[in-house]
Each structure stands twice: as C-alpha cells, then as structure tokens.
Amino acid sequence: MPQKPLVLDAPVPERRALTTEALQSEILEKLTYSVGKDPIVARPHDWLKATILTVRDRIIDQWMESSRETWRTSNKRVYYLSLEFLIGRLMRDAMSNIGVMEPVRAALKNFNVDLGDLINLEPDAALGNGGLGRLAACFMESMATVNIPAYGYGIRYVHGLFRQEMSEGWQVELPEDWLAHGNPWEFERRESSYEIGFGGHVEPVQEPDGTTRLEWRPAEHLLAVAFDTPIVGWRGKRVNTLRLWSAQPIDPILLDKFNAGDHIGALEESSRAAAVTRVLYPADSTPSGQELRLRQEFFFSSASLQDIVRRHMQAYGDLGSLSDKVAIQLNDTHPAISIAELMRILIDIHGMAWAPAWKLTKATFGYTNHTLLPEALETWPVGLLERMLPRQMQIIYAINAEVLGEARKMGGFTDSQIANLSLIDEHGSRRVRMGQLAFVGSHSINGVSALHSELLKKTLFSDLDRLYPERINNKTNGVTPRRWLLQCNPGLTRLISERIGPDFQDDFSLLAQLDKHADDPTFQDQFKAVKRANKVALAQVIKDRLGIVVSPDAMFDVQVKRIHEYKRQLLNVIEAVAQYSMIRSHPEKDWVPRVKVFAGKAAPGYWNAKLIIKLINDVAKVVNNDPAVRGLLKVVFLPNYNVSLAEQIIPAADLSEQISTAGMEASGTGNMKFMANGAITIGTLDGANVEMLEQVGPDNMVIFGLTADKVAEKRNRSEVPRSAIDASPALRQALEAISSGVFSPDDPNRYRDLIGGLYDHDWFMVARDFDAYAAAQRDIDELWNKPRKWYSMAIRNTAHVSWFSSDRTISQYAKEIWGVPVVGG
C-alpha cells in the first residue's frame, strides 16, 4: 500500500512540564494506569518503569519536533550502521540531558523512593561487546547534541553478548536476559517491516523494451521489524532515533505441518528467524556458525538500506539525489555487504544503470576501519556467499572486475599487488574480503587515531591507497563527556563547577582552565577527596561481588577492557607476579600499596584469552591470601564488565593501564574516559595514546616500550625472544613461577603452553617490553609517593581531555565526510 504524504503542520500535544509537581503527578499516574500498581504494593521495578515512562514522554515531545524539523528543512540525514550499540542504561543519561534529574529525584522522594536505587535497577542493554559498540553509542548521543539528523541502525539482540560469571576462576558464558521484562524505552514500528531473502537463484527477466533485467528469487524469507529508541542530545536540543531490527518469520507456524503432527517442524521457520537476532557474535568456528554470522550482517544491512531508500523516495521521489540527502557510515566491516546490496536495489529494483549506480553508491558510503589485525577483518567463503546471497555475489564479482581493470589501466602494479587489491582472496580457499569491499565502495575511509590512519596507508590498505589516493583520512575517536564525566562522576563535576563555573558543561574546551589550578594545594586536596570517595564506593562493589576487602588508600591500578593478547593483560599480571615476589623478598622496603583491578570478557572461542582470565584469578587467590604480602598488593577480577560497571570503576582509578602492543590498538576509548576522570596513564605509544601525549604533555603520562616501527622491525627480523627473558631475572623468575604451577597447584601444567609462547615467538612483545614496563611501574611508585606531583598530573589530565570529546569527532565527520552542518560549525 503506498504511503500517504506527510502532513507537517498536523497538531501536536502540549509539551509536558518539567517541574517536580508535574513529574510527581505523572509518575503516580503511570504507576497506576500503565504499570497497573497501587503505590502501597508497588515494588522498585514498578517505580522504575513508571519513572522511565514519565521521562520518556518528555523526550518524545522533542523527538517529534526533531523529526518534523528534518522533514521541513530537507536536511541531509546521517545513517550509522553498526552491529553493536553498547548504550548502557538510559534513564540517568536521558534525565541528565533534558535537565530533570533533580526534579525527578525530589518527586520520587515524596513517595519514599530513592532515585539512585532505581538507576541501579535498570538493566544494561546487551547490544555490544566493547569499544566499537560503545563508540557507536557515544556517536549517537553526540550527533543529537550537535544537531545532526541521524538514525543508528543495528540489531535488537534478545540476549546480545553473554553474561560473564566465574566458576573456580574460569569464565562461564550465560545468556544475558536484558529483555526478559520488556524494554520501556522502545517503540515497535510494524509499518517499518521489510522482507529479507536468503538463498535461491538469479533469473534474467525480459523487459517490454527488449532489455534484460536480473532478478533475485530467494528460496527463504524472513521479516525485519523495526524497534525505535529515542536518543536525546545534551539539553534536549535534538532527539535522534536508534532503530534496531528484530527478525520474525513470515509464517510463525506452518499449520499444515502442525495439524499433521509435526509440531517441531511446524515451528522450524520461526526458530530459524529467531536465531538471527538471538545473540551477538555467534561462534563462527563451524560452517553453521559462519552462516548465522553472515545472516545477521546481511539481515540488518538489507533492512536498513530498504528503510533508507523508502524514506528517501517518500521525500524526494527519485534516487538521483540519494548522496545529496543521505550519508551512510559503515562502522567497521560488519555492514560491508551493504555496498553490494545497495547496488542490487539501485540496479535490479529501481532500474538504474551500472555506472550511475556505482557512482551514487560510492558517494553515499563512508567506511570506518577499527583494526589493523588481519584476522579481525572479515572474510567469507565464496561458496557461502554464492549459496546464501547469489545476486550480491554476482555484483561483488562485477565490482572486483572494475577495480582490477582500473589498476591495470593505471599500471605499475605487480601481480602480487593486483592480488592484494582483489576483493577475492585466492590464497587457499577462495574468500571475499569485506574490508576491500568496504574500501572500494566508499568515498571516505577513515582510521580512528592518527597513528592508526597512517598505518592503514602503509600496511593494510597500502595498494588500495595507491589506487585511490586521498580516500584514507583520520578521525580520532572521542567519548561523550556527558556520560563519562558529568554523569558517572558527579563529585568531580561539582568540584569543577565550583572552581571554574558550570559553563564547561556546554563547552568542554573550558576544562583547560583547570590547568592553572593544578598546583593549588587546596584544589588538589579537594580533587583527592573526590577520588577517594569514588574509591570507597568501588571498594564496596569489590567486597560485595568478590568478598575481597581492599583499602581505598591504596593506588587503584586498573585495566578494564576486552581480554585479548594484544591488549596485554598478560604483561600486567606477569608484572604483578614479579611485584609479589619482590614484596616477599624485601619486606624492609617501603612498598606502595596497590589494588590491581581487572575486568573484561574473552570471546567464547578464544582459549588463550580465557586462560589469561583464569591466570589473573589464580594469581589473585595466592597473592590476596598470603600474609607475607601484608595487604600491600591485591589483585581482583570483576566479572561481567559492562557500561554500568565501567561507570563505577573508571572514576575510582588512579592509574590507567593502556599497554597494548604498539601498532595494534586502533585508538582506544577507555584511555580517554580514564583521562577525563583524573587517572594517570601508563601506556605505549599506540592508538590514541599518541595524541593524548600531545594534548597533556610528556610530564603528565608515563610512556614505555617499543614503538610501532620497532615492533615491526623485530617481527621482520624474526628475533628470538629468549634472550630478552634470559637478560631479565625478574621476568625469568615470574615466568618460571607461573609455568611451574606455583599459582595452579591443582594443575601444574595449566600455563606451560601460554608461557612457552613467550619463549617461542612472543608476537605481542610481552617479554621484550617487560623490563621497560616494570621500570615504568617503579616510576609510578615514586610519583605516588609525591602526592602534590601526582595530583597535579591527575588534574592536568582532566584539564586537557576536551579534544577527546565525541562532539569534536562527530563535527569532523560531519564537515569532512558527510557534508552536513553542525551547531557552531
């Protein structure tokens, strides 16, 4: 059925008041008539839902106006395609951004309900894994803040990433049930449903004018149904939409099979559809796992593109202006199949010729690369794509022919370079390179830190950069300072407001004014008091969750992030073992008390990462219970790291561990969150650490280790790491203790292979950076013993963090890639 034209002057409800009285009245009304509970018997989750619905109504007012304004002005829209959106809890974020936190607190207090308890009760949306998904969430909030009309597109995972628990120190993956009791923030949009096909075949269709058109006839169909969540910007100036797709069967039950007694077979289609949006990153170590991953990526990409094209056609009537009104940003390679799918839509459905369709596609798409790790750049078996997406595979072959033709026409490429340019990897089993597809189908390819973008040109995409110069550019990541300073650290926010005034909340560049107060002893003492209060709160979390008592007067040394060998949690825990040995051997020394805090999830199929988690817990069990240590060193691993836990850990951190192997971390965003909250960074010259060093100065960070060039040089020389181990008694003793079973008496051989890898190849330079890292940690000890110096450095980190705001990052995307105006731009 054709959609009716928009009526932009239709009436709208009167805006709701933001006063305590109005909020109190409406919370009671929602509790009674939407939740169906009498206040006398209402439980905390009832009050939570009533409060969310009350706050949501006030957001909807601006949501509707934001949408109408975009339609009225025909502004260009940005569409951000990401397999992850790690949005965390939304209520506090929304209340803060529209300015009703205190009125809501007061309204609930009149019902003897504590707002803080309700905030902690809200479940985290399990829609992401780590930095990539959290970046997408920060970007959505910043796009609304700087007034960019935008949609985020992703998947409405029922379970998302797993919930992590510990069993005898081992990671155990359990389903995350964040949707078990519904999601009051979302709205189902039944009218925005699209059929998604898989399999089948491609047939030529003769047109009346004698031309031949190719038509894909899928063998299988399912339905993508939209669920919309409002994303509100700072001060509520704009509210954008996060649209997540849920997979549903075309026919929920095959009645003929059911009536014939095949009750399981009757629900087969329903089960197959449900699997697509059940979990984030299903294991792809089996052919069926690979197929499910591909289904997920095509499912949300196709649904999003159909939605974008439908909206554009509704507004403008033809697709010739698509790139003038639409900017689509691919967040990594997960949505890269969109390149082929948009070409199919333009050519097969809308009858566009190849050349203008290809030109339009490239002008519409931008691609953000997040990794230099070859294994993290997706590739798919050619046979799988030909079977599941036959028409898209034809288009990929045609794109590849065009790209290779351009390379041969330009000349100067060797056969091996031509092979590197190809979208099809012919080495071994033939596979489609999704990074290459995203590159050739986009007019802009950006890295996420200055170092990363340069390495993209030199390594990963060197031949493509030569063929298509000027496409690669840099957009250093940022984080939203609303969530990662104002909301998660209210004590520090109040202190800063008292010292330099509250205007920094609207212009974060004003934080630089703190620099002149960094050496003020009074301000340092106030800053230290805020930090200690945050540490007391985290110490209580550690006690409640782990039963471990830690002192808030110790240095909180924190490494929280996805567990991966290149992020080098192993280096950190080996140094902890060395430190443990020194404390026992030299009890007469004045050791700095430390609490080493770890958190993060390992991919279910990543054995070494899971083994590192077990090692951390094994070391913790020994160290924390050894009376000879006298509490000078504590090691804790907090399970189920998510946004809410990060908001408790980061404000309490004294030391931020950003110690990845140089040249392997694209950017990092945790480093920026710690910086904002006054932690001092110990790190390598990797990712955004390089730019952090430029912003805060070398006197306010502790940098150690090999540079990216030195890492590459050592790898190219195939240098044997054993000499570095033999030259370091502390390292050698720590490795021998771990590999011999000192920390795993129940299984003395548990870590033999993990440690043996450091002797054999040490790809991640753990052994070769150990001495530099240990020396840097002793420098940290000296700084801690000079509290005036320490807090001067900490304050300057907060003072110089404004450049790492996602508002700045998004403004650069808008001006340099998307071509859309921003507030103040």
UniProtKB/TrEMBL annotation:
Its cofactor is pyridoxal 5'-phosphate. Its main location: cytoplasm. CDD domains: GT35_Glycogen_Phosphorylase. GO terms for molecular function: glycogen phosphorylase activity; pyridoxal phosphate binding. It is an enzyme of class 2 (transferase). It comes from the Bacteria. Its EC number is 2.4.1.1. The modification N6-(pyridoxal phosphate)lysine is found at K673. Pfam families: Phosphorylase. One of its GO terms (cellular component) is cytoplasm. It is found in: Cytoplasm. Keywords: Allosteric enzyme, Carbohydrate metabolism, Cytoplasm, Glycosyltransferase, Phosphoprotein, Pyridoxal phosphate, Transferase. One of its GO terms (biological process) is glycogen catabolic process. It catalyses: [(1->4)-alpha-D-glucosyl](n) + phosphate = [(1->4)-alpha-D-glucosyl](n-1) + alpha-D-glucose 1-phosphate. Belongs to the glycogen phosphorylase family. NCBIfam families: P_ylase (TIGR02093). Phosphorylase is an important allosteric enzyme in carbohydrate metabolism. Enzymes from different sources differ in their regulatory mechanisms and in their natural substrates. However, all known phosphorylases share catalytic and structural properties. This is Alpha-1,4 glucan phosphorylase. It comes from Devosia insulae DS-56.
